[in-house]
Design a protein that fits this description.
By secondary structure, the protein is mainly beta. The strands form seven sheets. Strands 19, 20, 21, 22, 23, 24 and 26 form a seven-stranded antiparallel beta sheet that branches. Strands 1, 15, 16, 17, 18 and 25 form a six-stranded mixed beta sheet that branches. A five-stranded antiparallel beta sheet has the order 2-11-12-13-14, with no helix packed on it. Strand 32 and strand 33 form a beta hairpin. Keywords: Membrane, Transmembrane, Transmembrane helix.
Length: about 500
């Protein structure tokens, strides 16, 4: 009888513990961010912030044996010396993107859900026709897969899915800050965090960060909490109308002038190409820089490399009349837009920016988003449409009609992040029949340009260049044939600081 009573007590105790476990799992206070855990636990689950790198689905994939790349849904293979190209298999359905996880190649299909592993022969001389496809992660509707070499992440219908490297789902949790499609669709993941500059629940258009918080009794149970960071960096006293804009415009967010600000001010004052219609007949000397902030637009995609998040974004640089208080009428109804325009004007140059992963984790929210400007374009016609980051260099591409007299051009830029100098390393003036949105991808030794025809958006040709823009090679022509023939390069010797 005692044994039976003891058994009942154990059963009741287990039931009570189970109920408590699940009840507590519903309480927000039981979920804490990773940085609150001891360092030994953090090191088990996360990268060093100085080294964290995230890869996403793309068109080019570098392996130890060679380079895999896509052409109109076909998986192609280029040997390690870059002299020969073969098709891996011809009977697969169209592939939309590829990525490398550890030493393996993974892909997503154009008309099939999920992530798939590509198994190819290790004998590269006989790689053609030897590929095989294995389902790895099924059912996901989105093509935004990411890996940091510890986990695989995927956005799917407002949920962030987390998987181990062998395809086992760890957790799934709803994220708060989803990109607003009309203002850019980009977002990214690092150490389980999700970030985008504009979110659906973000009326001021600031930086939205979803912070993963882990159940203290089960590391694999995750809830996301939100924090917002302001886009404004004031270098002078905010205007009265700005202080009403968002709470990030308060006086405590004012920062002193930096060396970059003085340099930017000097360039703007001495390069008339900046002014154009903004200045009209105003006296530049009567104006001073007021603020610098990120424009209300979310980048379409980000890059995470060596502890930094890279993105391209327009800045909003505001200049204001030094004596604006004497030139504007203050009424109970506030200020009219016409009066504001009389005493201030704005520039919107495009810049290449980066932010430290460590800073984004440590900031508590309701603070100013800390970012670094690593390159800036003062020529509006050179609008960066695609970019990649490799080492200390940023490769970016722009295309368009640069004047009524000139033909359609594609320009390839390289930005040295140590100096902030951008050089044009390749110009293609012959491709006037190609669209203004070329794809740009990098392997260890090459840069790949994907150029699409205006008339037929699915038709393309692929050009491969060395990292310095030299030795352009036509890899695939618009007929889908392997060519591997040199092209004429027309580089321009100029730089944009």
């Amino acid at each position: 009888m005692k044994a039976l009573n003891m058994k009942k007590k154990w059963i009741i105790s287990i039931i009570i513990i189970t109920i408590i476990y699940f009840v507590l799992s519903l309480c927000d206070f039981m979920y804490i961010p990773a940085d609150k855990y001891p360092n030994i636990i953090r090191k088990m689950f996360f990268h060093d912030n100085d080294k964290v790198t995230v890869r996403s689905i793309g068109r080019v994939c570098q392996t130890k044996e060679g380079i895999y790349f896509l052409y109109r849904g076909r998986l192609m293979y280029m040997n390690s010396v870059g002299t020969e190209v073969k098709e891996v298999a011809s009977d697969w359905q169209p592939i939309e993107g590829i990525m490398i996880i550890e030493k393996n190649i993974f892909c997503i299909f154009r008309d099939k859900l999920g992530l798939y592993e590509i198994s190819v022969s290790s004998n590269n001389d006989y790689i053609e026709g030897k590929g095989n496809i294995i389902e790895f992660i099924s059912g996901e509707k989105d093509d935004r897969f990411y890996t940091d070499d510890k986990y695989i992440y995927c956005f799917s219908s407002g949920m962030l899915e987390k998987y181990t490297l062998d395809g086992r789902k760890v957790c799934s949790s709803k994220v708060f800050y989803e990109p607003r499609p009309i203002l850019g669709i980009g977002s990214t993941v690092f150490n389980g965090y999700s970030v985008c500059i504009n979110g659906n629940q973000n009326p001021c258009g600031d930086v939205g960060i979803d912070v993963p918080c882990y159940y203290i009794f089960n590391w694999n149970k995750v809830k996301y909490k939100q924090k917002r960071l302001g886009r404004v960096r004031y270098y002078s006293e905010a205007s009265p109308w700005e202080s009403l804009d968002c709470y990030f415009s308060k006086q405590e967010n004012i920062e002193p002038y930096s060396a970059w600000t003085w340099k930017m001010d000097y360039i703007i004052r001495n390069d008339k190409s900046w002014w154009k219609e903004e200045i009209h007949d105003r006296n530049v000397e009567e104006y001073e820089p007021v603020s610098i902030k990120l424009y209300d637009l979310n980048p379409n995609y980000y890059r995470v490399l060596d502890g930094y998040i890279y993105f391209t974004q327009r800045l909003e640089i505001t200049y204001r009349d030094k004596n604006y208080k004497d030139k504007i009428r203050i009424t109970s109804e506030g200020f009219s837009e016409e009066e504001k325009k009389e005493v201030e004007f704005k520039f919107h140059p495009q810049a290449m920016l980066r932010a430290k992963v460590e800073d984004m984790e440590k900031e508590k929210g309701r603070e100013t988003f800390k970012y670094e400007i690593v390159g800036i374009q003062n020529k509006t016609e050179d609008f960066v449409e695609n970019y990649e980051v490799r080492g200390k260099f940023i490769y970016s591409v722009a295309s368009g009609f640069y004047s009524k007299e000139e033909s359609y051009k594609t320009k390839l830029f390289i930005t040295d992040m140590d100096t902030g100098i951008t050089n044009i390393i390749y110009t293609d003036e012959k491709s006037n029949k190609y669209t203004c949105t070329p794809g740009l991808y990098c392997s260890d030794d090459y840069v790949f340009l994907y150029q699409y025809k205006i008339e037929e958006s699915t038709t393309l040709r692929i050009i491969r260049l060395d990292k310095d823009g030299s030795n352009p090679i036509l890899v695939m022509d618009e007929n889908g044939e392997v060519v591997m023939k040199p092209l004429e390069s027309k580089s321009e010797e100029m730089s944009v600081k």
